[in-house]
Write a structure and sequence with these properties.
With 756 residues, the protein is an alpha/beta fold. The strands form 5 sheets. An 8-stranded mixed sheet has the order 2-3-4-1-5-10-9-6. Strands 22-21-16-15-24-25 form a 6-stranded mixed sheet, sandwiched between helices. Strand 13 (345-347) and strand 14 form a beta hairpin. Helix 1 crosses helix 5, helix 10 (291-307) runs antiparallel to helix 27 (719-755) and helix 15 packs antiparallel against helix 17 (476-482). The longest helix is centred in the C-terminal third of the chain and has 37 residues, at 719-755.
């Protein structure tokens, strides 16, 4: 049987098959030719070890026959691939820009390889419309139409384009990325974000590839010899229908550092050593003439930093190019003497940072995690993070309902006005979710552990949820969405306020608002007796928040002769009427605790800021946690006093864990006000580190935060940065070798043409 006959036979089997396919799919770098990777001593084997560690360690390439197929006729290529897999072989099928490794799912499982996706069905049909072909594929996959997450109909592509399109969709499955329609988004909106699904629901993609096949009608073969008219040509549809489901594996993390996002670290014990090291680094940077050499320089620089922990002074340099980095090095060298003499700090807009007085070293024990309150979340937040920390997102998805945790339907709504208009409960859920994610990122990916933890308002709930105290924080998601505490008591109809004001059902609805006003607390407190339905809700540095009856709040502001910025949000937290719900709040947050609680973290509550709670003291129990949240929830929040108390207890370096950087801004203002007033708090050093910032690039902001933490000598690992650079280097080497091979082939072709 010749090859064409064999292909036709397999194609017929695929068409008639009613059994699901079980074919594992792995996305490969386009320039990786597995037929050249068997020799363990080869350079490409080393690259395979870095880029595809499971495949490398399985030794599958040494024990199983590999078939290499270059796409030219996609339909025929697929049938040949299926035939080879049925014979126990593995297949690399590729175009110049895409590559897939395909094998039986059982073989992948036996070799402990986690595929990026699984091919569950394939139907090759002619003379059928795409819907009929897809129905057959879904039937083969044993899936109902409503189980399909996304369906794509891709008409009129050539074989290379078809394969590349399918690989792109497999890549999306493997990276859990949802791409938006460019026509549906504005210029400031994210092009893509994490691909959310309902809890425990797999991502399934259905694909139709259709081509028109020109043929002749029967009348074209009639006995008359008339010329064939255009109407005598018919167009038959050839359709390939696939059903793909997500695999147990996911693509390797993107590198946080690359040739467009540079980071270099300089460590020393004196000013002279620092300046010398900056000069040496400058020389090395000038000599880095290729992308690979630049990547190697940054990787080796971080390896040296990781190996040496005894330096007192550390500079973190960041830039977007070699030229920009040279300017950053020069600027730092120029500023260094004055910064050291003043015992100060220096940062550049690009993110380079140096402090002459590190506040995060173990001897300082001054690292504090700060958790923001309700209302800091924003549209499209964290849209890029999943590509850099896929294993973290996979872990969070296993733990609970990630879609609900982020309130994804609102946060990633195509209309950016939806997120700011979320209900109080939804804002609270998304706020805790964002804090939980960033905490896990710092703690688990970079092994950072705080000495202190505190929260702004509802940030206290985020604190307990994020730092390993509550056993099942995800159970609060649905409760927060439905409990009257959030839906009607202190928001919505404000039933707690109506009770406190002794209103009945016949009285008019309350018109509630809150206002940020630049004023000390004392003048506001002096006026409160005149306005019994207006309250001082929050004290925060040089501003305060008043809340209550909108009319009385405006009258108070007028008498105060101050302008207020309306928040236009209905919440009675931190006002006297909230005390009506104290017992309900305490009951709501009375949650089971983890069997093993953190002992190294001191938790500070705004309700009793002069004392800390830690499990090392044996003070943490579910009742203590619930009561501290309820006390904070129902009383005026004095954030200024909370920060001052934290400073007195030893907190020096405040890292904000949550969406945006509002708490960092407030703490900076409090520190500035202390300096201006000569407060005793000026005796306590203070520095802030935002991990996220609205309007900024997620990864750049994170990298800036890491740079600050490195300079402040916070114990952490830079392994995620090094591992990412190793992958970038391996890809660079592969691409360079591939380019050389192509040029050699082109030269050979030119030589042959010349001989002819």
């Amino acid at each position: 049987m010749d090859q064409l006959t064999a292909n036709a036979s397999v194609s017929e089997q695929v068409i008639k098959s009613e059994m699901p396919l079980r074919i594992a799919l792995l996305v490969l770098p386009a320039s990786l030719d597995l037929s050249k990777s068997v020799d363990a001593a080869s350079e490409q084997a080393e690259q395979l070890c870095v880029l595809m560690p499971e495949l490398y360690s399985s030794k599958l390439l040494e024990t199983t026959e590999l078939v290499s197929i270059k796409v030219d006729d996609f339909e025929a290529n697929l049938t040949a691939t299926i035939e080879s897999i049925e014979q126990g072989k593995i297949v690399q099928i590729s175009t110049p820009s895409s590559s897939l490794l395909m094998m039986h799912a059982l073989k992948a499982a036996q070799n402990r390889i986690h595929p990026h996706a699984q091919l569950a069905a394939m139907q090759i049909q002619e003379h059928l419309d795409p819907s009929t072909s897809m129905a057959k594929a879904l039937n083969q996959a044993k899936r109902k139409p409503d189980s399909v997450s996304k369906r794509f109909d891709l008409p009129e592509l050539n074989s290379t384009e078809q394969f590349d399109a399918v690989c792109k969709l497999i890549q999306d499955l493997a990276s859990r990325t949802h791409h938006r329609d460019p026509q549906s988004i504005g210029p400031k909106q994210a092009n893509s974000h994490y691909w959310f699904t309902s809890h425990h629901q797999a991502r399934v993609v259905a694909i139709n590839l259709t081509n028109s096949v020109k043929g002749q009608s029967d009348s074209a073969h009639s006995d008359d010899n008339s010329a064939h008219s255009p109407s005598e040509c018919v167009h038959n549809k050839s359709c390939i229908s696939f059903v793909l489901s997500q695999g147990t594996g996911f693509t390797a993390p993107k590198s946080i550092i690359n040739t467009k996002r540079l980071q270099l670290v300089v460590s020393a014990n004196s000013q002279v050593e620092l300046i010398n090291s900056l000069g040496a680094l400058r020389t090395q940077l000038v000599a880095a003439s290729t992308p690979e050499s630049l990547l190697n320089l940054m990787r080796d620089n971080l390896l040296a930093f990781e190996a040496s922990t005894n330096y007192e002074l550390v500079i973190a340099q960041q830039a977007t190019s070699v030229e920009a980095m040279l300017q950053e090095l020069d600027a730092m060298a120029e500023k260094l003497p004055s910064v050291i003499s003043e015992n100060g700090q220096y940062r550049t807009p690009a993110g380079s940072y140096f402090t002459a007085k590190p506040l995060g070293a173990p001897a300082q024990n001054g690292l504090a995690f700060v958790y923001p309150g309700v209302g800091t979340v924003y549209s499209d937040m964290f849209s890029e993070l999943h590509g850099y920390f896929p294993s973290l997102y996979a872990q969070l998805e296993r733990e609970g309902d990630l879609k609900s945790m982020f309130q994804a339907d609102s946060i990633y709504h195509l209309d950016p006005k939806v997120a700011p208009a979320m209900a109080l409960g939804d804002l609270a859920i998304a706020g805790v979710g964002s804090s939980y994610l960033l905490t896990q990122l710092l703690v688990k990916e970079f092994t950072i552990t705080p000495n202190f933890a505190l929260g702004y308002s509802m940030g206290e709930a985020s604190m307990w949820a994020s730092l390993g105290v509550w056993k099942e924080p995800h159970t609060l998601i649905e409760k927060t969405k439905t409990d009257p505490l959030f839906t009607s008591a202190i928001s919505g109809k404000l039933t707690a306020v109506r009770k406190a004001w002794q209103l009945d059902n016949n009285d008019a609805d309350i018109v509630w608002n809150s206002f940020v006003v630049r004023s000390p607390a004392a003048p506001i407190e002096a006026l409160l007796p005149e306005f019994p339905h207006a309250y001082l809700a929050i004290i925060q540095g040089d501003t305060c928040v008043i809340a209550g009856c909108e009319t009385q709040c405006r009258e108070l502001l007028a008498k105060l002769k101050k302008r207020g910025i309306a928040a236009n949000r209905v919440t009675a937290m931190h006002t006297a009427p909230a005390m009506e719900e104290h017992g309900n709040v305490e009951q709501f947050y009375n949650q089971p605790l983890q069997d093993s609680l953190p002992t190294e973290i001191k938790f500070i509550s705004a309700a009793s800021p002069d004392s800390t709670v830690s499990n090392a003291q044996g003070k943490i129990d579910s009742q203590v946690v619930a009561r501290s949240i309820a006390d904070t929830f129902c009383n005026t929040l004095d954030f200024t006093a909370l920060i001052h108390s934290a400073q007195k207890q030893g907190a020096k370096l405040f890292v904000e864990l949550g969406a945006d950087r509002q708490n960092c801004t407030l703490i900076d203002k409090i520190a500035k006000q202390d300096r201006q007033c000569g407060s005793e708090s000026t005796d306590y050093p203070c520095s802030t580190v935002p991990v996220n910032a609205k309007g900024g690039d997620d990864i750049t902001t994170l990298l800036k935060a890491l740079g600050q933490l490195i300079s402040h000598r916070v114990p952490l690992t830079v392994a995620p940065l090094i591992n990412g650079l190793n992958r970038e280097i391996a890809l660079s080497q592969l691409q360079a070798a591939h380019t050389v091979q192509l040029k050699s082939k082109q030269m050979s072709n030119l030589t042959l043409q010349g001989e002819v």
